[in-house]
């Protein structure tokens, strides 16, 4: 078995699905989201996407242990695994929130949306920021190595809730990227997408606007990529646009695909994703992103990947996917920060991937705990805050904070 064989990845995935089927992760059973029309296949997909990013970073840590440089692994499969996970997360965001715009006919409750997003994303993000800050403090022996003003700016960026990218260093400690695995850059673009809804929601008021707008976004992104103008950010626009298109065409597409055998749909979806992963050097490009889009359209329309996405273990991992995604940096950094284990992992694929598998189990348990102790209370507080603010602005008495999460009102998640 070589360092970049896909076998360890598949074995670890099977291990985690087995773990998720046990009472150990039962705490994750209550979905923390509230969408009117819940798509079960997306619930099962989230966990797989977060784990894809984790395996991507597991391979990167092998390169980091050898060279001390944070760079992509030489394996195309592992190099593309992370961008695949992130890319489909962006599609999910586009799909979920454009579905809300379409359902509200372009007149959503923006107060509820933005307060909900704030309380959904920021609490767990602050856990990561605090871990990074404490780690930087120990690394610098709690001595001030920079001017107070510079440190203040760094800490401000660190605790900006993902609206700003994390600083490269804090108090002279340059290990922030390693401790966070660089995970927070995606939140910056998530916030930009949420802000764009203030303008784009108007198009959802027109009968065809809900489809024409994302189609125009898709065409514009393709044109910018072909023209070499901001190709990376244009590729992200393409991903959001595909998700929005999926929201606009889901019902007729699901009706059409209902006549096709489920095994054929699953094979086609997996084939499209596999080709995007292994057939291109870069996922953030037109052809691989469109292939991922084909797979995504099929999944949101009911394709189950041979039933995997509807299983309880997959959906449990989906419920804790934000924690798996956001907190993998500290767990991997801790695992590979033990000198003896890091040294043993460099020449031995078995040791390296065993260490990654152990980190994956620890991450799943950690994400489950933070899901219960941080994410759910944050969602509950967000619901109460939006009601209170709305009641105050409307001149009505604020309702009492809810005691329990309503299982019947799932809310869109993003990583």
Question: Can you give keywords for this protein?
Answer:
disordered C terminus; 415 residues; 0% strand
Protein described:
This protein is mainly alpha-helical and 415 residues long. It has one domain (7-376). Helices cover 68% and strands 0% of the residues. It has 16 helices and no strands. It has helices at residues 7-20, 40-67, 76-103, 110-139, 148-158, 176-180, 185-200, 209-226, 231-257, 262-278, 286-300, 312-319, 321-326, 328-336, 339-345, 349-393. Helix 3 (76-103) runs parallel beside helix 7 (185-200) and helix 15 (339-345) packs across helix 16 (349-393). The longest helix has 45 residues, at 349-393. It is globular, with a radius of gyration of 21 Å. The two termini are 32 Å apart. Residues 32-37 and 397-414 have low confidence and may be disordered.
Total count of domains: 1
Q: How would you characterize the largest beta sheet? A: none
Say what oligomer this is: single chain
Shape: globular
Question: On the 0-100 scale, what is the average pLDDT?
Answer: 89
Radius of gyration: 21 Å
The structure class reads mainly alpha
In helices, the fraction of residues equals: 55-70%
Instruction: Report the total helices.
Output: 16
The total strand number stands at: 0
Order of helices and strands: HHHHHHHHHHHHHHHH
Which regions are unreliable across 5 or more consecutive residues at pLDDT < 50? 32-37, 397-414
Q: What distance separates the N and C termini? A: 32 Å
Note the beta-strand portion. Answer: under 5%
């Amino acid at each position: 078995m070589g360092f970049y064989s896909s076998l360890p990845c598949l074995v670890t995935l099977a291990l985690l699905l087995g773990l998720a089927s046990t009472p150990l992760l039962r705490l994750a059973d209550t979905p923390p989201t509230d969408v009117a029309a819940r798509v079960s296949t997306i619930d099962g997909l989230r966990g797989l996407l977060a784990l894809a990013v984790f395996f991507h970073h597991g391979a990167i840590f092998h390169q980091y242990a050898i060279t001390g440089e944070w760079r992509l692994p030489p394996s195309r499969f592992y190099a593309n695994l992370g961008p695949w996970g992130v890319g489909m997360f962006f599609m999910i965001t586009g799909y979920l929130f454009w579905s809300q715009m379409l359902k509200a006919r372009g007149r959503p409750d923006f107060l509820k949306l933005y307060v909900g997003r704030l309380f959904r994303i920021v609490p767990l993000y602050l856990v990561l920021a605090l871990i990074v800050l404490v780690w930087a403090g120990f690394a610098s022996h709690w001595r001030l190595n920079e001017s107070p003003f510079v440190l203040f700016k760094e800490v401000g960026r660190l605790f900006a809730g993902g609206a700003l990218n994390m600083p490269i260093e804090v108090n002279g400690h340059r290990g922030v990227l390693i401790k966070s695995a660089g995970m927070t850059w995606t939140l910056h673009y998530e916030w930009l997408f949420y802000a764009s809804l203030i303008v784009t929601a108007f198009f959802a008021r027109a009968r065809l606007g809900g489809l024409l707008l994302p189609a125009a976004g898709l065409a514009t992104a393709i044109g910018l990529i072909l023209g070499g103008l901001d190709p990376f950010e244009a590729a992200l626009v393409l991903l959001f646009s595909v998700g929005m298109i999926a929201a606009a065409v889901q019902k007729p597409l699901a009706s059409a695909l209902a006549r096709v055998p489920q095994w054929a749909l699953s094979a086609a979806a997996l084939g499209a994703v596999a080709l995007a992963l292994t057939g291109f050097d870069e996922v953030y490009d037109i052809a691989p992103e469109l292939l991922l889009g084909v797979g995504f359209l099929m999944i949101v329309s009911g394709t189950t990947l041979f039933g995997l996405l509807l299983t309880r273990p997959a959906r449990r991992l989906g419920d804790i996917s934000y924690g798996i995604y956001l907190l993998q940096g500290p767990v991997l950094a801790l695992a590979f920060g033990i000198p003896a284990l890091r040294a043993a992992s460099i020449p031995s694929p078995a040791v390296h991937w065993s260490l990654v598998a152990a980190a994956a189990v620890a991450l799943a348990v950690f994400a489950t705990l933070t899901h219960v102790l941080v994410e759910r209370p944050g969602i509950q507080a967000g619901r109460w805050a939006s009601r209170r603010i709305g009641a105050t602005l409307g001149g009505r008495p604020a309702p009492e904070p809810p005691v329990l999460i309503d299982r019947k009102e799932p809310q869109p998640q993003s990583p």
